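Q: Hi! First time doing this. I have a protein sequence and I read that you can turn it into a structure. Is that right? Here it is:
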Amino acid sequence: MGFLTNYKTRISWQIGLYDNPPVYIASESTYRKGIEMFTLNVKEFKKFDLNEAKKFVDYWSEKYSYEVKALNSDEAIDYVNELSIKNELSEKNIKKLLRWKDPIRLTEVIQSGKNEGKKNKSVLKVIEKKNHINEFRKGKMSKKEFKAVTENVFPNGFVWPIFLFHIARPFEYPIADQNVFRAFSTHKNKKISKDWELYKQYINYFFQISISSGIITEKPKRHEPNIKEIIKELKKVDEALFAFGQFLDSYGKR
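A: Yes, that's right. Below is the predicted 3D structure, encoded as structure tokens:
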């Protein structure tokens, strides 16, 4: 997992928010004009050791920072609560979850540009499919059928259709975005193809980490009495991969 137990505090001066980072971030120190310098060892990023999964999740999930406020409110959207996992998703739940996912392009009222103030057609299309989302949640619609629904709502792109899978069954389908895919492609040494086959592989990777880190012992099935708490814990894995992916975007190209 590219994660060792020793630490080099001094490298944190180079990478800002990543205080006391794992030693894999730094290579051997060098001297330039009498000053000791530390540089990033990009090769170390690719190490993937499931025995270190708990340390990876604990470390990187602490670096996650993301908050979206509800429309016309100072109250932050409670992502896990809005999933309403033991019930059906309401229109209000879905609107808040979409805004949480992408406040610029998935807020129910367009916030800027020539269409500012108008209803967002993408959000309306999702709301129209609310019953389908809940049917898939309850196992009354097949994956193939629901995939067709999501691609009808979002005919272009890949991440947003996956998000509809996620909000329907968050215990089975993790969130997808460029950051978590970047983490996945680095650990697995794969190119990001942005297709459903990639996502299938990402799901396996996500639950490998979740199980190896001790967050779960097996993939959940929704009917667990503590399913909401399980989803909260699974969110830590997403947060760790998101933060690691952001880090790679900033420093992994060097």
